[in-house]
Amino acid sequence: MKKYDVYGIGNALVDTEYEVDDEFIAATKWQKGIMTLIEAEERLELIHLLEQEHEHQVIKLAGGGSAANTVVIVAQLGGSAFYSCKVADDDTGTFFLTDLTNAGVDTNLTNVREPGVTGECISMVTPDAERTMTTHLGITQDFSTSELSPTELKQSTYLYMEGYLVSSPSAFEAVLEAQAIARAAGTEISLTLSDPAMVENFKDKFEQIVSLGVDMLFCNEDEAKLWTGASARDQVISAIRSSFPKFAITCGKDGAIVCDGKETSLIPGIQTTPVDTTGAGDIFAGSFLFSLCRGKSFKESAALANSMASKLIANFGARLPTEIALASLKQP
Length: 332
Hints:
332 residues, 22% strand, 42% helix, five-stranded mixed β-sheet, alpha/beta, 12 helices
């Protein structure tokens, strides 16, 4: 038996959330519902616009980053997880490290870190629960093979690779290295496409990763359509299945389409009133992998993942409180 259920690699970000209206989003240059990478100056301009000109207040500050959210839910549910990332020697970096440690996730981070600015994601949530995100990567832009922990990766059942990493040359190199280590160690390789904009702008990088072997794909339906170029759901499923032996495609309120390598199934979603969809795909993936590591089927794992995601989007924030996650796990 391996030491860790999931070894994740991704961008270390601290999430700062604001409640805004559609008019605010329309008045900015940001595309609603999409993650956009921004520079330090743009970050300062946006904060000024939010807090000074429109008097919006921060509703939540929390450790974040897509793959970090995924490994945290694994640990919350009672699994074991390791996370490789990069933060700076600043207060934000210390906050991120403390938050991850308190969640029960092992990490490559130490108290001796490089000077710089830790990454931040500003998430603007509209009344329809859509989130428009702007991300200043800071020092995580320099995530590299140096942040990998090969021994821990070899001792993991699954490698979970965050698609956002393909935007950085050094991080992309780390993805390929982690993939090679995992393959040699018999660690299952899973990949998330992360965001429609990443598929549109970096499909060649994703194709290179896939050509080297990916056992399990996570994506939402919009990302799947962009990846395949198909619009009809049955065509999308057929095209995804031709490239990935196993996959999980989240479809919002419709639930999720999963394939265990043999059977493809639609697992119905759970009725809920969405407040904030931030992190829903991350929580789905972590819950799903946790369940697989407990010997559950793809159908059972997707049912649990749908439940966890439905609980998440009924509240603000990209992570579930541990007590809610555990209570949901115990429900039949």
